[in-house]
Design goal:
Length: about 325
């Protein structure tokens, strides 16, 4: 009996000891000044529209190569320079003659001397605008836990391309008020805060506490131009492998209803974020994302604001946007 009690005591002591050993790991970025990471993004976007009079589908492939350079170590984390190095873009539309393909590496700036305004030239002008953005450095401040603190140099990087677009629109002899509205929209789009969410997929906001396999945590991402709604991101540490962390991300957004313009244009919009999942592979040494695979579905329903329910439903338009994406080093 004495030996049995001793065996129980040893078992309990061993279990307590093991619990103390599995204290978890604190995940964070561990970078050095001068580190560089060239990330290759591949986005396949399918847009389906079901309208009362017709249905249509469009496919867009978007492939940016983005270079991240660690410029300085800061008290909070890291100051980075970020630049688009190359962009491939391909669109397949219901109207085949509107299809286009762009490779910024194949565009020469001498093409910008073109003055015509046909469809072919508009595609060329879009390519030139994108080319003008290549190699321009944006600034990005990121905390050691992956939280994006600040973006900068957005206006400086984009202004040449926007100036070019304004010159092309001027050649089209648009009404003065329309041109001013476009310029105002451009200025609004250059707000620094609007661009922070564009880098959200490259970084995960990690918790300050140690994590064990199976642990979960949440973050909340504000939507561009929306102070009322936030994306809820739930993360789960799936595995701790010898050279990487495997993390699952599931994002959700509450159903959004908003009224549009008044009068005969009055509409009711319903926006739903469907499945939005991603799997991240984080380098265990640096905390940098080695790769990620994900998909997201957005559904939009636009109903006529008619007092006749059947009439309103008959005039509804449904749009579904599915994005499948991968990012690799």
């Amino acid at each position: 009996m004495k030996h049995i009690n001793q065996l129980k005591l040893i078992t309990v002591f061993t279990a307590l000891l093991l619990c103390g050993i599995t204290h978890g790991e604190t995940l964070k970025l561990n970078l050095k000044k001068g580190d560089q990471f060239l990330m290759h993004g591949r986005f396949n976007i399918t847009t389906s529209i079901i309208a009362p009079d017709k249905n249509m589908e469009m496919h867009v492939k978007f492939a940016p190569d983005i270079l991240y350079r660690i410029k300085e170590l800061t008290p909070q984390g890291y100051a980075m320079d970020v630049s688009f190095e190359r962009l491939l873009m391909n669109a397949a539309t219901p109207l085949k003659e509107k299809d286009f393909s762009i490779d910024t590496d194949a565009i020469a700036f001498s093409d910008s001397l073109s003055t015509t305004t046909g469809d072919a030239d508009l595609k060329k002008q879009l390519g030139i605008m994108l080319k003008m953005m290549m190699g321009k450095s944006l600034s990005l401040d990121v905390a050691r836990n992956g939280k994006i603190l600040k973006t900068g140099n957005i206006a400086e990087a984009m202004q040449p391309a926007l100036n070019y677009m304004t010159r092309q629109l001027t050649k089209m002899k648009l009404p003065a008020d329309s041109l001013e509205k476009i310029k105002a929209k451009q200025k609004n789009n250059l707000k620094q805060a609007d661009f922070a969410s564009g880098f959200e997929k490259t970084f995960i906001e990690l918790p300050e506490k140690p994590l064990n396999q199976g642990d979960t945590w949440q973050t909340f991402t504000p939507l561009n131009g929306d102070t009322l709604h936030k994306m809820t991101n739930t993360y789960k540490l799936l595995a701790i492998n010898p050279d990487e962390y495997l993390i699952e991300s599931v994002s959700s957004l509450p159903e959004m209803l908003s009224s549009g313009a008044g009068g005969f244009l009055a509409m009711l919009f319903k926006l739903e974020i469907g499945e939005n999942k991603a799997i991240y592979h984080l380098d265990r040494k640096t905390g940098w994302i080695k790769s990620l695979d994900g998909s997201m579905t957005i559904s939009i329903t636009i109903n006529s604001n008619s007092s006749d329910k059947k009439q309103a439903e008959g005039k509804s338009t449904k749009m579904s946007i599915r994005t499948d994406y991968t990012v690799t080093m």
